[in-house]
Give the backbone structure.
Amino acid sequence: MALKTGLASAALMALAAAGCASAPGGAGPAGVEAAGGETARGARQRLRADVAWLADDAREGREAGTPGFDAAAEYVAGRMAEIGLSPGGDNGTYMQDVPLLAYSQDSNGGGTLEVRGVPEPGAFTRGESYMVGASSFGENVVVDEEVVFAGFGFVSPAHGRDDYAGLDVDGKIVALLPGAPKFLNSEERAHYGNTQRDRASERGAVGIITLTTPDRERVRSWESRVEQAAASRSVSMRWLEDGGQAFTTYGNIQAAASMGDEGAAALFAGQEMEWAEISALADSEQGDVPGFALDGVTARIAIESRHQRIDSHNVIGVVEGRDPELKGEYVVLTAHLDHVGVRQSVLEDDDQIFNGAMDNASGIASMLEAARVLAADPPRRSVMFIALTAEEKGLIGSDYFARDPTVAKEAVVANINLDMPIVTYEFTDLIAFGAERSTMFSAVEAAANARGLALSPDPQPEQNFFTRSDHYSFVKQGCRRSSCGRDSPMAARRRTRSG
């Protein structure tokens, strides 16, 4: 049965990372190894019950900071107590407080982009040629500066590349190609694309205009991105530092906009390199596009945002390890509890509740069953189980924990993340995002082999899944990690209303 096999894989991977199991022959705890009978039936019933409760309409999609999420957090804490996990949150509870800033576009659409010094300044139309998102920097933000093009903004001494070489971007707006060059492996490419703004901020840039590329268009068209942005009107979030400021790794960047093909062509018209040439070079394997200051071009990004301080929680339970020498080390098993809440749907007469059954009630249910198995027969190292908040807002809850864990930071030795295990087809293989470049790979491989599962590569590297799930927060803090999901047809990995 697929559900039972998925549970076994999660538990065995946690065991492999946490230390050898104590079941006969070292294969794993009896709860994992039982192939049928009452154990399997009970697990299936609990998995179904957990998913059904978490994804019920009453939870209203479990968006972080809403009553539906808070109810789900209390439910998971209750399940952890029932299983026998020790509280791993703040002040002897299961909850780690995560203070959040929620920010969104105001009722007028959020912001505008004005470009001066180009042949056709009227070519820039909000919602057609450009989009401007909300800003966490302030409720009313205006950046009006010169524009400098910096290619992919890719900087890597190991690859002998610095796209900022010879460019002065201090106090200016940087126009960037999205992502990173094609020659990088999928994890590197995802990471460098994800940290573009960090490198711009380090060099003093105060604004970003993200362009498009043929590669980006093949993944998802500009028109579909504009349509989704207009429909969702979603709320973004950041966690708050002790002084009340929103945490960010690119603190100089005050405002950002994105631009489609039409806008980019107007932006680079009459420059030393026009958009058609830039776009073609960006689509090459090396993606080595020379940067330059746009002659006579300035841009003004004006953003009006709504800010609200809210509170949410990570839910944390612990199984103490059985080895006196190793129980002070923690393997962290994570799954995000939140989904996207209530928003406009493209379906006629829809209730607009995005229930999040597969994404990620199934991951939470699997994590709880793995906790039940390991609590009955603890491994050598301690195992921490965390239901994370605000993954859908940009991995916020996991970033908060990874930077400020409830145990000593150096005690966190590995992370295994469960995100959207697909349970709608036969379970024959496992995708462990990032495992092959981690010291955990041998443990992951052993766990897969123990269940007769193939280890499959990332089927859609262009989607950048490596940086889009909570294990990435632990990667950035130097922790060994792997993110686990079942392989599936491409369509099953895309976000859907029911998932």
